[in-house]
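TA notes, week 10

Several of you asked for a full example with nothing omitted. So below is the full record: structure tokens for the whole chain, then the designed sequence directly under it. When grading your own attempts, check the secondary structure regions first.
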């Protein structure tokens, strides 16, 4: 992958500098540089020094053309981060900006040093020619004149009052003045309004004989009014007695280099596609806002991304996606105006930073303007594309937060806006954000929590209503979180389903519970309860489900008839061949299948007789309607009675969930319900609690 990148880099810079390398040799050379740059980006502790050295080495290898560095930075900025292996450094964008900046700085410094070396050689040659003038006057003057006339850099000679005496052709071309007009000018006329005071202080010291030369980078005006940047070296020439005689100025035109450096700086801090500030510039500006810990100002942040952008990329291609991003950037810029920092963070993510915001209302007004602007279709390649944006808004006093907290709050608020329906904005709410942070934390740590053994299984008794006997137990998973304590399933099951961790977690629960059920079977024999375990819809889609269940039963030694798997009504009733085939295979294995929360899914009841189901569990909402005596609505009781009769007519066992009162128990018993579950009997308890219940039952039987 790095070799292919080196080939693209080689193609980009080919022909921009005069180097004696064949194409393969050039690729080999850049491949070595690529390895060093990637290593610097991925290092545990980032150091831009290697990139600076590479910039110096490029100049030493004669990569000095003005296009070489610009093209290199473009290629590196776009593709270098993709070469960094996982795990990616969290500050990769900042590292990239620092690395490219160091590379450009090393390149520019080396190029400047090379020029100064050339100037110094000329100066020494002139002084040497002066010292040898008495012995070889004719030869020296001829050599000096040739050097003066043919030199590529501009050379001018002036007296100590600054009157220009002579200029060479290179200086004439550089400034655009005729030589005769040059010699009518004084050095004092060469002032630029942006010159640093130190420049003319150095000049005064030189003409007074207190220094022999100085070097500065200075701007001048050309004859046509254009600005040129130069590396200026002024040397004092003394007479035979050592007294100041005249001054020699040597100027190299570095205007293109200055423009290149400006271009490089722009590339380092701007997105090449949209031209907007990039993540590096945004991070720099945000850090400046928080540089003063007692800053009395307020700061606002809008974090936004496009809804459905991936669909555009996947269906119409990345070229159309790029065009869409450019069009969106234009609309966003019109809404934000020049006083707000609009940056593209990457992909379809943008941010708007408002330093000195006046309150949340200002950001809400901006968000509404952006959402309105995005409602109009964007026409690309003859088609109208409609795209909406979701926006997360945070506005706080600078002294009350940090840059990291502000970004985190904006990201979470954006997530909430998308979760609430997209094409809208959401304003930061600390209470909801704390909940979302906890949710994100659980989601991120859940997969590893199974391996760390943070989950435990509790068991809730399933009681035969006719005689009160313990018939079975339902295995219910809990998360013993190291920070949040013991968490109920409603805090993490949905997250497990979203992340796909539900398959691993469900397999662990089944194996753990089956092992415990076998332990009860070994101790209590026929009196041991059967085991009921919940199966998530996602697990039913797993092709290895039947094989996993079979393997767990073999490993634990639990008989299939002692295991019941509970699935929601929606999962069981799906008209799909895969899940139905798995259910029938489990039924053939001897495992019982029960429909959980029955009566809430608006199922096609006609499909029920064709399913391999052995039991129904009535949802607790039906049980709550049974209040006892005249308080019970007769219609509600009729519904429950009908469901029980329906189940019995299909030879199915009926379990009522959520029994909490004796009246509910009595009504269900009178209606013929088979099994009950709820707090009236017992809450879900660790395995030791079930063991204690079974032992008490043994004692009662022995005493009887």
């Amino acid at each position: 992958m790095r070799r292919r990148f080196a080939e693209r880099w080689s193609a980009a810079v080919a022909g921009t500098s005069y180097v004696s390398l064949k194409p393969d040799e050039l690729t080999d050379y850049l491949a070595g540089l690529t390895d060093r740059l990637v290593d610097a980006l991925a290092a545990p502790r980032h150091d831009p020094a290697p990139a600076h050295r590479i910039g110096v080495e490029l100049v030493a290898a004669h990569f000095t053309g003005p296009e070489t560095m610009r093209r290199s930075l473009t290629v590196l900025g776009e593709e270098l981060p993709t070469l960094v292996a996982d795990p990616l450094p969290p500050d990769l964008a900042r590292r990239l900006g620092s690395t490219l900046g160091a590379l450009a700085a090393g390149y520019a410094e080396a190029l400047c040093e090379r020029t100064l070396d050339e100037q110094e050689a000329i100066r020494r040659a002139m002084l040497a020619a002066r010292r040898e003038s008495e012995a070889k006057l004719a030869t020296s003057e001829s050599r000096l004149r040739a050097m003066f006339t043919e030199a590529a850099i501009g050379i001018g000679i002036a007296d100590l009052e600054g009157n220009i005496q002579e200029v060479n052709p290179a200086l004439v071309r550089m400034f655009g003045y005729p030589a005769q007009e040059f010699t009518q000018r004084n050095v004092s006329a060469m002032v630029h309004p942006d010159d640093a005071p130190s420049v003319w202080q150095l000049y005064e010291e030189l003409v007074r004989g207190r220094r022999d030369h100085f070097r500065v980078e200075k701007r001048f005006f050309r004859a046509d009014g254009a600005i040129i940047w130069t590396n200026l070296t002024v040397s004092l020439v003394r007479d035979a007695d050592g007294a100041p005689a005249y001054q020699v100025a040597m100027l190299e035109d570095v205007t293109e280099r200055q423009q290149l450096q400006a271009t490089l700086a722009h590339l380092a801090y701007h997105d090449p596609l949209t031209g907007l500030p990039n993540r590096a510039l945004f991070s720099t500006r945000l850090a400046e806002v928080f540089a003063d810990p007692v800053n009395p100002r307020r700061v606002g942040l809008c974090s936004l991304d496009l809804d459905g952008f991936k669909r555009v990329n996947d269906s119409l291609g990345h070229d159309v996606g790029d065009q869409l991003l450019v069009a969106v950037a234009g609309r966003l810029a019109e809404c934000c105006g020049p006083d707000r920092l609009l940056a593209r963070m990457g992909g379809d993510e943008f941010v708007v930073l408002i330093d000195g915001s006046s309150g949340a209302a200002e950001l809400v007004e901006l968000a509404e303007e952006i959402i309105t602007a995005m409602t109009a279709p964007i026409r690309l390649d003859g088609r109208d594309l409609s795209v909406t944006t979701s926006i997360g808004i945070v506005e706080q006093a600078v002294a009350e937060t940090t840059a990291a907290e502000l970004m985190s709050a904006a990201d979470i608020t954006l997530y909430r806006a998308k979760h609430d329906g997209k094409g809208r904005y959401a304003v930061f709410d600390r209470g909801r954000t704390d909940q979302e942070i906890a949710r994100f934390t659980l989601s991120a740590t859940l997969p590893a929590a199974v391996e760390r053994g943070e989950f435990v299984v509790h068991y809730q008794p399933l009681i035969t209503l006719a005689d009160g006997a313990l018939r079975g137990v339902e295995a219910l998973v809990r998360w013993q979180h190291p920070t949040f304590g013991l968490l109920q399933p409603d805090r993490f099951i949905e997250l497990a389903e979203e992340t796909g961790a539900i398959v691993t977690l469900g397999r662990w629960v089944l194996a753990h519970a089956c092992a415990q059920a076998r332990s009860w079977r070994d101790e209590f024999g026929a009196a041991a309860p059967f085991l009921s375990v919940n199966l998530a819809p996602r697990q039913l889609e797993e092709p290895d489900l039947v094989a996993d269940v079979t393997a767990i039963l073999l490993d634990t030694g639990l008989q299939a008839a002692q295991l019941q798997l509970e699935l929601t009504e929606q999962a069981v009733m799906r008209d799909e061949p895969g899940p139905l085939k798995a259910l029938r295979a489990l039924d053939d294995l001897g495992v019982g299948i029960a429909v959980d929360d029955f009566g809430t899914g608006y199922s096609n009841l006609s499909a029920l007789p064709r399913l391999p189901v052995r039991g129904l569990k009535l949802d607790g909402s039906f049980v709550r309607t049974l209040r006892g005596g005249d308080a019970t609505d007769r219609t509600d009781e009729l519904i429950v009675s009908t469901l029980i009769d329906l189940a019995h007519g299909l030879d199915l066992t009926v379990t009522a969930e959520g029994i909490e009162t004796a009246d509910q128990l009595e009504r269900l018993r009178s209606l013929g319900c088979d099994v009950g579950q709820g707090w009236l009997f017992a809450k879900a308890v660790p395995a030791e609690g079930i063991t204690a219940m079974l032992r008490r039952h043994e004692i009662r039987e022995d005493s009887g």
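The chain has four domains: 2-115, 151-259, 271-428, 445-703. Use that as a sanity check on your answer.
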